[in-house]
Structures are given as C-alpha cells and as structure tokens.
Specification:
With 226 residues, the chain is an alpha+beta fold. It is built from 3 helices and 15 strands. The strands form 4 sheets. Strands 1, 2, 3, 4 and 5 form a 5-stranded antiparallel β-sheet that branches. A 5-stranded mixed β-barrel has the order 6-7-8-14-11. It is rod-shaped and about 75 Å long. The two termini are 40 Å apart. Residues 175-190 and 215-223 have low confidence and may be disordered.
C-alpha cells in the first residue's frame, strides 16, 4: 500500500529557519508542501522518509532565501494491483460503493465488481447480497425477505481487492470574462489521483464482519466434533 519514491527538487529555506539544522529545516519545508499532494503516475504523497543528498545552500539575488538542491525519499500511497486492503464504506448508489481510508476517499467498487447475484440498485440505498441465491434481477432481489439479505451499510469495514487505478492531468479550463473580470473555468475538475477501482467479487472479500462470523462458527463446529 505504501512505498518509497525518490524525488529531486530545489528547496528554499526562509531566513527565520537559518538557526535550525539544515536537514531538519529541509524536512519541515518539504512536509509543509508535500502531504496529500499527488505525483503523476507515482501516487499520493504522505511525508518525507529521509533526505539522501543536500547540496550547498546558495543565496539568490533579491529574496534572501537559502536554496538547496535536494534528493529525498517520500512515503507514497499507491496500492498495487491485486493488493487486498481494509477500508470503510462512505456511500452507496446505483453505480456502486464508494470507500474511504480516512486520508483518501477515491476508492470505488463498481457494480460489476460486487458479489453475484446483483445487489440492490436503488438510488442511495445500501447494496446487499443474498448467499446461494439464484435470483438475477433487481426486481426479484427487492422482493426477497429482509432477513435473507446481508447489507453493506455506510460505515461498514470492508476488505477489498485493488483492480486498477487512474491518474488524470486535467488542463485548466478555458478562460471566460464575467462583468469585465477574467476568470478561469474550474467546472468539472477531477482529482489528480482518482478512481482506485476495487472488487469484492470473491470469497473472503466484503464486510469483515461477514467472514469473521463465518470463521467463528467454523471453529465452534470443530470444537463440538472434538
């Protein structure tokens, strides 16, 4: 889920921080701008792991800052394909289930990656699963007794498998003029790291409570046989 990425950059130290050790000042400066930033095709930056190289600080004319050429390693969030992770259900709709990790909210389970048979497709309703059911349509599923349904509710802790991720690099929108003021059009801008698509379409995936309960029942049966 987390990995290290080597980054080369030029960092500036403000005069107010000249008294601090150089490495501490550089780490503080990097961490000030790095967390929750996205490196395209790399991942979501979390924090500095360490600094591997720092050149000699140089003053540029006109600003008084000390500028350093730095090589450092970042802790980056980017799960690999087929990795199994734990997340929480944030919301549900007819398209699927959106999940959150607390610091990252762009995990999504499309309907095609839910357990079969299909779940409920009602707008904003929690999806559910009926084990060993032969029903195939939403109408049939919605006619089933509530006691037979295993719901995936908001806030539920789920185990999912990562299927794919996507980075986007949206260009700024076209410039428009409103009442004589030039404004950039921002409508429809997507997150730089979005649609981390996940699946629960196999045994052992889905709400953790489902499988924890099944495991406890299996252990109980073994003890009774003993």
């Amino acid at each position: 889920m987390f990995c290290l990425s080597v980054v080369k950059d030029t960092m500036a130290i403000h005069p107010s921080n000249f008294g601090a050790p150089v490495e501490d000042a550089l780490i503080a400066e990097i961490n000030k701008n790095t967390p929750i930033a996205v490196l395209h095709d790399v991942g979501l930056c979390i924090c500095v792991f360490d600094i591997t190289q720092a050149g000699e600080g140089k003053v540029r004319y006109g600003d008084g800052f000390l500028w350093y050429k730095v090589v450092f390693r970042l802790v980056v969030f980017r799960p690999f394909t087929s990795e199994v992770i734990i997340a929480k259900v944030k919301s549900s709709d007819e398209d699927g289930i959106r999940l959150t990790l607390g610091f990252f909210d762009d995990l999504f389970i499309p309907v095609s990656y839910l357990l079969n048979p299909p779940h409920s497709t009602q707008t904003n309703a929690p999806h559910f699963w009926i084990p060993d059911s032969t029903l195939t349509t939403a109408t049939e599923l919605l006619d089933t007794p509530l006691t037979e349904r295993m719901y995936i509710d908001q806030g539920e802790v789920v185990r999912v498998r990562v299927e794919a991720d996507e980075f986007c690099d949206d260009e700024p929108g076209p410039i428009k003029v409103s009442e004589g003021v030039v404004q950039a059009k921002r409508e429809g801008k997507r997150p730089n790291y979005n649609d981390l698509r996940c699946s629960i379409a196999e045994q052992g995936l889905g709400p953790v409570a489902w499988w924890s309960g099944a495991s406890q029942e299996g252990e109980g049966e073994e003890m009774d046989e003993g």
